[in-house]
Amino acid sequence: MTVEILEQIPEGLRRVPVLIEPSVGHYPEFRNFLKKVFDLEHNNFKAPCVLQVNQYFYEFIFIGRSGEEFPAALEINALPPGLEPLDAEQTDRDLWEILEWLVAGVGSPWSLEALRETGNIYRVNPLKN
After folding, report:
1. Which residues have a Cβ under 8 Å from the Cβ of 128 and sit 6 or more positions away?
2. CA distance 9 to 50
3. How far is CA 111 from CA 4, 20, 34, 35, 123, in A?
4. Fewer CB within 10 Å, N or C, the chain?
5. Rounded CA gap, 73 and 62, in Å?
6. d(CA 4, CA 115)
7. DSSP per residue over 24-89, as a string?
8. Are 97 and 90 in contact (CB under 8 A)?
């Protein structure tokens, strides 16, 4: 797994929405992991967070909602360079790596084995192909 957190968005990239999770707190352990990793406890208003997965970049935008613990939702944008087309297959593989990174970080009762088996059952594991 090659997921790295960057301090800022590299220049010359554009935003392409690729995933929205409307209820980050559905499982509180995921919200807590994101809060810890991105230091959201102390700074809810910081700029979007950026991950580098392999050689590609992804922006995490944390959404707040009145009456809900922060973050309430998450938007992920791919950040391809300039006007180059988005490689949808690579983006699928990278999103799967991000899911694996999240599950590994959250830990028990969540496991990579269970995530991968679920992906195999539903035939949505792009790393297996």
Report:
1. 116, 119, 120
2. 6
3. 20, 22, 17, 20, 18
4. C
5. 6
6. 21
7. GGGSHHHHHHHHHHTTTTT-TTSPPEEEEETTEEEEEEEE--TTSPSP-EEEEEE--BTTPPP-HH
8. no
C-alpha to C-alpha distance for 51 and 62, rounded to whole angstroms: 13
Beta bridge partners of 31: none
User: How is the chain split into domains, by residue range?
Assistant: 3-122
Residue 129, judged by CB atoms within 10 A of its CB (0-12, 13-18, 19+), counts as: exposed
Sheet containing 16-21: which strands, arranged edge to edge?
Answer: 3-6, 49-53, 56-63, 73-78, 16-21
Encode the chain (129 residues) as per-residue pLDDT tens digits: 688 999 888 899 999 999 999 999 889 999 999 999 999 988 777 788 999 998 999 999 999 999 999 999 999 999 999 999 999 999 999 999 999 999 999 999 999 999 999 998 888 878 765
Q: What's the token pair of residue 19?
A: 């995933």
- The model's pTM: 0.89
